[in-house]
Amino acid sequence: MRAQPTASHFIDGEYVEDTEGTAFDSLYPATGEVIARLHAATPAIVEQAVAAAKRAQPEWAALSPTARGRILRRAADIMRERNRELSELETLDTGKPIQETIVADPTSGADSFEFFGGVIAAGLNGDYIPLGGDFAYTKRVPLGVCVGIGAWNYPQQIACWKAAPALAAGNAMVFKPSENTPLGALKIAEILIEAGLPKGLFNVIQGDRSTGPLLVQHPDVAKVSLTGSVPTGRKVAAVAAGNLKHVTMELGGKSPLIVFDDADLDSAVGGAMLGNFYSTGQVCSNGTRVFVQRGIKQEFLEKLKARTENIVIGEPLDEATQMGPLISFDQRQKVLSYIDKGKAEGATLITGGGLPNHVTGEGYYIQPTVFADVTDDMTIAREEIFGPVMCVLDFDDEAEVIARANTTEFGLAAGVFTANLSRGHRVVDQLDAGTLWINTYNLCPVEIPFGGSKQSGFGRENSLAALEHYSELKTVYVGMGKVEAPY
Ligand code: NAD
Questions:
Q1: First to last CA, the chain
Q2: Ligand 1: which atom is nearest the Cα of residue 215?
Q3: Residue 382: enclosing H or E segment and its boundaries?
Q4: Which of 129, 245, 405, 481 is the most buried (most CB within 10 A)?
């Protein structure tokens, strides 16, 4: 097995195995080959991980911010040095092409450690509040033990996006990757130890939907940050609410991407393709409802069809491959069933719609697919597909498209392509979403907040805003005179 880790879990600075836990296989999505065999965490493993985190956290929080930041920045350097090795592992774990993982996965994880290592050293400071003689001050304090639960599309990035701000703010973390992609987070845990992180502060335990709740309901856990689907988000938030835990929810979407007739058409087509086909369409913020102004519809579709049919699908470890498989057989079945619904409900299939015939073997490949003449009521326009299926919808004017774009329970992201600057700002201002782009799509550098509104979640990752979600405010009132009591 070519990616077998030393053991399933990483707790208190070392690999730990417990063969009592349910065994599960990790598959390479491009071939279905078993690349690792692991065990889900038993309740005893959950206890061990939370206890290690709880024990380690106070001493870590007591370190100077500069000392904490130095370790995180060292982890960033190690990740960059090992980018090739980590990217290959990410490709095996997810099936995403090496062409993507080498620029988007460990590197964005490293950015996160570098950024939060730097900003924490610059200070997560409070306020001094003069009260006329008396005064008060505030300080930001860590929450304690935080739990991170990840999805399978960006396993290393998700682990880092949660670990970096949590650790920077002085917390400890227990992270559970998706059962589909168990490998990357273990390497991040190893690297953090190598960078000098005291043991017990970043622990990784394996498991699925039955393991998650053991973490979420644990009395020693102060916060849960989930990246996953909306139904999972509802369940996790409900359990967390029972114990009044802090939560960050990074959930799914059905984001609108609006192309006005004055837009640079090649950029708009490129943006729509990146926003639907990158990572084989398995990106939460994808602009899967592409609203195209009627006058440019034909030209847009012609360019889109030609470029889509040129996408190089193949073995993900091959540098030339532009699109790999979906994560699993089940995910492909789900995406195919949405394609069937699109056809049955009357959308026009422009390209794709099935399995690529030049790819052989057991891999979970699917063709990048474009539907046109999609209407707002169709299933493919309403539900998150999480695969490379782009829906193109026509529109006539600005007010109409804004209203239709907002008619969704989701609110993760949105994008606008137009040459008219004031229109760009005016339109994004009226779109209900947490993360928006003008004349580009899906760029999420660590410096900017990322997250959703409505059913797509709450809380923010990245940027200074993330630190607020991994800390709380303590207010201290200082009396300078005698206490005047009426009794
Ligand atoms: P999922 O909701 O099935 O699983 C996410 C994680 O939650 C997994 O680790 C899973 O084991 C765990 N889990 C499932 N049920 C649980 C429960 N009851 N309690 C605790 N943990 C539980 O999601 P997925 O299929 O792995 O990922 C795809 C989804 O994630 C899509 O909806 C996508 O939009 C979303 N996503 C969102 C973002 C974002 O930042 N907004 C990023 C990536 C993916």
A1: 77
A2: 20
A3: helix 379-382
A4: 405
